[in-house]
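for the writeup, i need someone to sanity check this before i put it in the appendix. the sequnce is what the collaborator sent (i think, or maybe the updated version? ugh). structure was predicted straight from it, no edits. if anything looks off just tell me and ill rerun, i have time this weekend
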Amino acid sequence: MGTKKPDLNVKENLPAISIANIDFKVEEVGIGRSFTAKNNEVKEYFSGDGEKVNFILAKKPLKPTLIVEYPPGERRMENTDYIIDYEGGSVNFRSPPEKGSNNVLIRYLAPAEIKSVKLIMKYHIDVWSKDESQRDKITFDIIRTLLRGEEEFDLKGIIIKPIGGFNIPANEVPKEVYGKTIECLVETYLQVETLLPRIEKIEMSRK
């Protein structure tokens, strides 16, 4: 079995199965939404120089999700060892961390946006054989396999639906080669996650 069509003039290549994507559509399933979850945790390492006490974060953390470890693995206490400026997105140590490479670890959650699109793809599964009955048997075996795997595909967020098929005309294949096409629709989702800056201020005016 391969994704490419075999050389049908070489009898040793048969029987064979080839798969081709012939069409696809993209549908939006909703606007981006903000959320927080542990898998949105941001980890930043800083190197102390024995003098610096202020460390600027790449993103502004959500309250109260920030954890400071110095050295990594040894958790420090807020207000006792450091002060967090959530608005400014920085951590200020009471005493400067000692000089060292990546000896300060700061972990926190940041707001994120997920955008999803639905992909609808049409595939042709082509079955090739030197024998017509063998071709049909392989075709039915493929359909049975797809139906039995519905639950497993569904758990992965994939829907595969056989929607039809046809015999490939004799004038499109070499002599004594038989072909059949199974048409399938495949639906799945593509998600892109990006971290968002926090809203600094909301201004309302009355007219």
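The helical segments are 132-148, 150-155. The two ends are 70 Å apart (CA to CA).
thx in advance!!
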